[in-house]
Amino acid sequence: MSVGTSSAPGAQDAGSPPAASRPPGDPAGLGIDPDHLPDGLVVADEQGHIICFNAAAERITAVRAQDALGQRLEKALPLEDLEGRRWWQLTDPYGGLAIRVGQPERNLLLPGGREVLVSARYVRTRPTGPLRRLVVTLRDTEARRRTERSHAELIATVAHELRSPLTSVKGFTATLLAKWERFTDDQKRLMLETVDADADRVTRLIAELLDISRIDSGRLEVRRQPVDIGAAVGRHIQAYVAAGQPADRFLLRVQQPLPDLWADPDKIDQVLSNLLENAVRHGEGTVTIDVTATASPREDEDTGTSVIVSDEGPGIPEESMNRVFTRFWRGSKRGGTGLGLYIVKGIVEAHGGTITVGRAPGAGAEFRFTLPVAAPAYLA
Asked: In the chain, what is the greatest distance between 2 CA atoms, to the nearest angstrom?
């Protein structure tokens, strides 16, 4: 336990319990330990001496709580803005305007140039009275940087994936408009079929982006209906066979009886489509799909439905297993945006299910997802 909940000598109000038993910002005596907070918390008293410096603040600033407690705030946290100006001199919380209530979050620099997100709240005895407490919160910028990098990668991937089909669409339509009479009917059909396929590719990419947005924001809706998952797998296999894949490349095994499954049929189709496409495109040999009853991933249910999709290809390297369901992961150089398995994981988890990846008995990749069989709440 950090000593950050301890108060500095002489910094405690007369007649008040020790800060260790009543952390700053806890006048109701709720017993909230500042060390349990996820963000850095630094509290200074009316003279600007630090009386609280929690464990997260130690981690973010690399300053020990025992060295910070009792120090002047500007000495323990010599923050500068991005233009090199001393932050506490610039904002002057103790001598500035008495109507100020705080400082919004902004990027500041610690000694050594490390960035940290800082916000402050001014606690006064009355609306325009003297400052009684200065409460400062600190956040590491690394998580935000990872998010920004992820967004930048997403934009770059989308731009790249859109450029190719849109260039094709523009090229063929411009050519047809300018030289319609010069082409035979077969040539026109070929160009229009290419335009149609590229338009479908753009539509799929936009649908993936919408799914990612809903998954990341927690707004992915699941509309549960009865689903015959064995029949759903069968439809996907028939589509591949109709498209030219040999029928003996697929082996579907459905254990009977299966529990009644309530799920979103469109989203389950999306999961099956991604997993089967992954096996067909990146795997080799027979693609085996096993549908079985299994233990439910939910503690309050006994049974669930499990689907295993495996192939006999080279499989996924062991060092890549933990990255399979992340954005932009690609198992090979055979195309794709690298978003499909990320979306699959989001859909399965939105159903309350789980998904894993491993090595199949035939040495290929094996994806297994398990769904609870619960009916909608209005039927429970």
From this structure: 96
